Amino acid sequence: MDLTHRPRRLRQDRVRDLVSETSLEPADLIAPVFVDATTDERIPIESMPGHDRVPIDGIVARVEDVLETGVEAVMLFGIPESKDPEGSRAWADDGVVQEAVRRITSETDAYVITDVCLCEYTDHGHCGPLEAELRSEGGLEDGPACEPTMTVDNDATLAALEQIVTSHARAGADMVAPSGMMDGMVGTIRSALDEAGFEHVPIMSYAAKYESAFYGPFRDAADGAPAFGNRRHYQMDPANAREAVREVRLDAEQGADVMMVKPALPYLDIISTIRREFDHPVAAYNVSGEYAMLHAAAEKGWLELEAVATESLLSIKRAGADLILTYFAEDVAQRL
Ligand code: PBG
């Protein structure tokens, strides 16, 4: 055969790596960790094998294990000792995340990012205080058929977010990551941090966060499932791609430093679009359901876990993510 082009030449063992377009580094990975004020012992999260809710007294050891694998950053989620309609334990200076941040930053070199949201702290599980909204299926003339439905009060939530980020920053958080999809959240948080003297603290915005069924295991882990309804009123419709560009643009205007797309694998097109349209670092959140499904299939012997985990993270990077938040962080980093 007289073939000019033989792409297989570059797939031979000794040259394959030389021409590889994408690589995974432990330094690109962020490990999510759960700190729980309601327990003195680690509680395994059933749907997320290998992950636990960790008591405050165990959080430093947990983070040291992460650092051991070469992963240098953690994303901290808190489960508070009590919940109320406003989620007030979220901004308490002696709250679970604030205390964990103080301990981790004073005893380790980890780069500590805090998730900033209210859903783990409100007793109804929504991402902010509620407002009643009247909605009518068949038009106003239906009168009595109008059903009052509850939705999150956007602007009241912004006021709470200001308090949360400043309390995290006072505790020593290196970066804050607002995840509640409230309009104006990035701008509000940026001004609150700046006014409190934390202009050096970057914001990683969950800029394009979809209303996804892949968050199921996380909601068990963090005890943050909405008690009623869903998050459609604030998280994005999975059908929309242009809207993600709009969300990211708004966050860019408001001063977000890193743009996150979440989930990752079912939204690789969004990651790739955001990479092309913006010059910010792009983060992708390989969420709890993406982790759980690979584990479940591996447990049945249907997939090889290490291989599919690495391939997943590689494809997320290839799509354009600079950073990946993933429950596989430690496993994969250890093998790199
Ligand atoms: C909300 C938050 C959620 C996740 C991260 N931050 C859950 C939600 O929006 O319901 C999900 C992460 C995952 O599934 O791994 N604070």
From TrEMBL:
What one GO molecular function would you report for this record? zinc ion binding
Query: Its Gene Ontology biological processes?
Result: protoporphyrinogen IX biosynthetic process
Keyword Zinc attributed: yes
Annotated positions binding Zn(2+): 117, 119, 127
Q: Which residues bind 5-aminolevulinate 2?
A: 288, 327
Its family remark reads:
Belongs to the ALAD family.
What name appears for this protein in its UniProt entry?
Delta-aminolevulinic acid dehydratase
Q: What is the lineage of its organism?
A: Archaea, Methanobacteriati, Methanobacteriota, Stenosarchaea group, Halobacteria
Gene name of the encoded protein: hemB
